[in-house]
Design goal:
Blueprint: H1 2-15, E1 20-25, H2 30-42, E2 47-55, H3 60-75, E3 80-84, H4 92-109, E4 113-115, H5 120-132, H6 137-140, H7 158-168, H8 184-199, H9 203-228, E5 231-235, E6 241-246, H10 255-267, H11 275-287, E7 293-296, E8 300-304, E9 308-313, H12 314-317, E10 324-325, E11 330-332, E12 335-340, E13 350-354, E14 360-363, E15 369-374, E16 377-382, H13 383-389, H14 394-397, E17 401-405, E18 408-412, E19 416-417, H15 419-422, E20 429-436
Parallel strand pairs: 1-2, 1-4, 2-3
Antiparallel strand pairs: 5-6, 6-9, 7-8, 8-9, 10-14, 11-12, 12-20, 13-20, 14-17, 15-16, 17-18, 18-19
Helix pairs in contact: 1-2, 2-7, 5-9, 10-11
């Protein structure tokens, strides 16, 4: 027994950061209550633990489990965050999505690593389910797929975890839904898998090996993409992940290669591309025009800008601030405005305007024009062309501000000033400076 205890302790100790924060996903069941006990035992002084438990609002058991976990966590001296579904979700997929959204929100608040109690049995069941659905290598990796989530018990089987829990006298709750045959995993766990193992005792080891090989393939693919495709992962002003992929490094690939590459690129934004979404991304890569976009599942879109493909969250990118009077100092979205003493010169991030002129800041609209001098004439040119010429990518372009006087655009901060506005002289002026807070150095 001591060997088993030391083995689980070593696995969990390795999964927890020596410094920083970790969020333990605890449901109240056998596996997660064991994780809680082991983590409380091996935690280092500089590692801050938080227990996160989620009430799916599915009935009496889910409420009882959340309360049970909260009491247990506090008994260990570990703070706990309890989440609850606003609307009762139906089905495994909906429950899983709601739970993971909650866990990631908790972890994001302290830049913590998420630690779950998935075991080798969970991996075995996952690989078998994926195989039954005719999944490719990405899906067959199952819980072994590269991720920022730590799963220390993936190296052991459930019976090892149960032996530890019994020896320690731990208490846990049995989820009644785990016996319901309405759910595919339960039918597979209680009916199909035992029959398959009776007919082929080596199947468990073969499925585990299959998952390991698929996970290795995914790691090798990720390394190959890192070395051969220019790709940047970041977050927009709402905190949503986004991925930029340079177009020149994709357009020469064949459709078959793109069908392998795009799911890996999308995964970096937390997006899972199904076959239909992959096919759409492949076709768009080969035929999409600059300024074009396609929608993908889950509220995501792929945008073609001048030199890259941009994977963006539609819900996040839809939020643009309303028009507001220009006052210095102020912030509008991710742009900061201030008044300065300097003369602006050629710097497009600065402008001098008559002090008595009422100005406002808003997002540019399709069809907006800025007046520029063309020879001896003043002409209006569309704002979108100035933004494109400046290399401002599509997801940022949708939010970019313009400064207006009445109905006339006088300034596209960081891009261009109106020549008509610059012609005004002989009156007291105020010089404004703008800074884009997300501007890369």
């Amino acid at each position: 027994m001591r060997r088993r205890e030391s083995g689980l302790a070593a696995l969990v100790s390795h999964a927890l950061p020596a410094q920083g924060s970790a969020v333990l996903a605890v449901s109240g069941g056998l596996d997660s209550m064991t994780l809680l006990d082991v983590a409380a035992t091996v935690r280092e002084r500089d590692c801050e633990l938080t227990v996160a438990t989620f009430d799916h609002a599915s009935g009496t058991h889910s409420r009882r489990a959340a309360s049970f976990v909260a009491r247990a966590a506090l008994a260990y001296g570990i703070p706990v965050v309890v989440g609850r579904a606003g609307n009762p979700a139906r089905g495994e997929a909906a429950w899983r999505a709601a739970r993971w959204q909650f866990l990631r929100e908790v972890a994001r608040g302290s830049s913590a690593v998420i630690v779950t109690a998935h075991t080798g049995d969970d991996q075995l069941e996952t690989v078998l389910m994926r195989a039954l659905r005719d999944a490719g290598a990405r899906g067959l990796a199952g819980l072994r797929a590269p991720t920022d989530v730590q799963r220390p018990f993936i190296e052991v089987r459930r019976h090892d975890v149960k032996s530890y829990a019994k020896a320690r006298g731990l208490r846990w709750l049995e989820d009644p839904t785990n016996r319901q045959r309405d759910y595919l995993r339960n039918r597979l766990r209680h009916d199909l898998l035992p029959l398959l193992l009776m007919a082929r005792p080596s199947l468990a080891a073969e499925l585990i090996e299959l998952g390991d090989r698929a996970a290795a393939w995914r790691r090798e693919l990720a390394a190959l993409i890192d070395s051969s495709i220019r790709c940047e992962v970041g977050r927009d002003s709402d905190g949503a992940k986004m991925v930029d992929v340079w177009a020149a490094e994709l357009t020469e690939f064949s459709p078959d290669v793109l069908a392998i590459v795009w799911p890996e690129l999308a995964a970096r934004a937390g997006v899972t591309l199904d076959r239909r979404g992959t096919a759409r991304a492949v076709e768009f890569t080969r035929s999409g025009k600059v300024g074009g976009r396609i929608q993908l599942s889950g509220g995501w879109e792929l945008v073609r800008s001048r030199d890259r493909f941009e994977l963006r969250n539609l819900v996040s990118s839809a939020s643009v601030e309303a028009e507001r009077p220009l006052e210095a100092p102020m912030t509008w979205g991710r742009w900061a405005f201030a008044s300065i003493e300097a003369v602006p010169g050629a710097d497009p991030w600065q402008i001098s305007m008559p002090a008595n002129l009422s100005l406002s800041v808003r997002a540019w609209h399709p069809g907006d024009r800025l007046v520029i001098r063309h020879g001896d004439r003043l002409i209006g040119r569309k704002v979108k062309y100035f933004l494109s010429d400046a290399g401002i990518s599509g997801h940022i372009r949708a939010r970019w501000p313009v400064v207006v006087a009445g109905n006339e655009i006088v300034w596209i901060p960081g891009v261009r000033r109106s020549d008509a506005a610059a012609a005004r002289s002989g009156r007291p002026v105020v010089t404004y400076a703008c800074d884009y807070l997300d501007r890369r150095s």
